[in-house]
């Protein structure tokens, strides 16, 4: 069961009783998503691009998506967003997060009305935004497409160690374009070595509140 839980910045998250972990940082769901995935990820990667493709590992509540959608709409960036989610939440539960308060109504309604269909096939939410949520595991995911950025937002290694093995990290990284960005809230010596072994340059960045550091890595060109 997933339970709606308040975090320190006033935004909600969900607590997954089966996994034993929150979907976002208890120090602040909204500020973590903005810090890790929007500021260090999307804005860094899309700074000089008119079009960007995102592969997200772990769609969860959709918070990373709606913030990405909002930024790209405001900046006339075409967003092609693909997410992998083995255990999709119901739209009713997503609505209980009250994340509609953090984006314009047109962004929220575009998302929530198309969510269930996006689990079946890509949906064009606006002329600038396409959303596809693949109902599968990362291990089983296959796609000939290469992406500009990966948001790696799986549960932590303590609760979901299979999502942080060298093999699964290499599999995820194989979907990035040369010069693409891999970004995640986590940083461990093992993770750094796994990403570096895939031909990435490692960056340690200040973490979101409650976490000292996070990882951003850039895939080698060519």
TrEMBL record:
Domain annotation MnmC-like methyltransferase: ranges: 142-219
Stored Pfam families: Methyltransf_30
Name of protein: tRNA (5-methylaminomethyl-2-thiouridine)(34)-methyltransferase MnmD
Native species: Pedobacter vanadiisoli
Higher taxonomy: Bacteria, Pseudomonadati, Bacteroidota, Sphingobacteriia, Sphingobacteriales
Gene that this polypeptide is encoded by: mnmD
């Amino acid at each position: 069961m997933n339970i709606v839980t308040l975090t320190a910045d006033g935004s909600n998250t969900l607590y997954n009783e089966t996994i034993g972990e929150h979907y976002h940082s208890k120090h602040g769901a909204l500020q973590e998503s903005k810090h890790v995935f929007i500021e260090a990820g999307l804005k860094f990667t899309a700074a000089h691009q008119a079009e960007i493709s995102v592969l997200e590992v772990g769609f969860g509540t959709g918070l990373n998506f709606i913030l990405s959608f909002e930024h790209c709409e405001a900046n006339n960036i075409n967003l092609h967003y693909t997410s992998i989610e083995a255990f999709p939440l119901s739209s009713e539960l997503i609505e209980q997060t009250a994340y509609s308060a953090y984006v314009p109504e047109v962004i929220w309604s575009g998302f929530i009305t198309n969510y269930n269909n996006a689990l079946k096939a890509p949906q064009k939410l606006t002329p600038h935004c396409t959303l596809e949520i693949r109902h599968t595991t990362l291990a089983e995911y296959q796609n000939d497409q290469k992406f500009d950025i990966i948001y790696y937002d799986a549960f932590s290694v303590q609760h979901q160690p299979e999502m942080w093995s060298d093999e699964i990290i290499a599999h995820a990284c194989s979907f990035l374009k040369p010069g693409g960005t891999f970004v995640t809230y986590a940083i461990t010596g093992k993770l750094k070595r796994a990403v570096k072994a895939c031909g990435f340059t490692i960056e340690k960045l200040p973490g979101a509140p409650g976490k000292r550091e996070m990882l951003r890595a850039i895939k080698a060109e060519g």
